[in-house]
Amino acid sequence: MTANRKRLAVLGGILLVLAGAGVAFAAYLSTGTGTGATASSVAVNSTITPNTPGAQLYPGSTSTYTVTINNPNPYPVKVTSISASTSDKTTGNCPAGTVTSPAVTNPTGTIAANGTGSYSLTATMIANPDNSCQGQSFTMPLTAQLASAAG
Predict the structure, then answer these.
(1) DSSP letter at 81?
(2) Residue 55 domain flag
(3) Distance in angstroms (rounded) separating the CA atoms of residues 151 and 80
(4) pLDDT by residue for the chain (151 residues), tens digit each?
(5) Does pTM top 0.90 for this prediction?
(6) Contacts of 121 (CB under 8 A, 6+ apart)
(7) DSSP string, 9-21
(8) Pair 121, 67: CB distance under 8 Å
(9) What is the DSSP secondary structure assignment for residue 97, as one 8-state letter?
(10) Same domain, 70 and 139
(11) Largest CB tally within 10 Å, which of 30, 42, 113, 123?
(12) Do 2 and 65 share a domain, yes or no?
């Protein structure tokens, strides 16, 4: 036998074994059925904290102040709105509503997972505040709406 014939015979034998194994393998294929399971997380509410107070207000004036919104969730979020607000009554008997802040819709930026974002808001003092409002600090209750920005 020549070298080429030996090679062909060996190659043919290997192909024959592989073909037989393929047929044997194919004869034992099957399918399976069942279920998989996973669960979704639960959104954790953010918090809003004062960041930088604006310039001091006087009757009829407007000032910009900043707040920090945290994202305690394991995914990024976008702030879709920040509520309008009116000031609470102060300890010095300055009436509630002396300072107002308009709503903010679709502020820019995304807050990273477990991160924080800073947002600028506007505050305006009414034109005729009570005299007891001098030298007071004003608390502005706020609510932010957040939506998942994943993907």
Answers:
(1) E
(2) yes
(3) 17
(4) 577 777 766 767 777 666 665 555 557 888 999 999 999 889 899 999 999 888 999 999 999 999 999 999 999 999 999 999 999 999 888 999 999 999 999 999 899 999 999 999 999 999 999 999 999 999 999 999 999 997 7
(5) no
(6) 64, 65, 66, 67, 82, 101, 104, 140, 142
(7) HHHHHHHHHHHHH
(8) yes
(9) T
(10) yes
(11) 123
(12) no
CB count within 10 Å of CB 92 equals: 13
Residues whose CB falls within 8 Å of the CB of residue 41, separated by 6 or more in sequence, listed in order: 73, 74, 75
Closest CA to 105 of 123, 81, 77: 81
Dist CA 146 CA 107 (whole Å): 11
Residue 71 and residue 77 in contact, taking contact as beta carbons nearer than 8 Å: yes
Task: Report the domain count for the chain.
Answer: 2
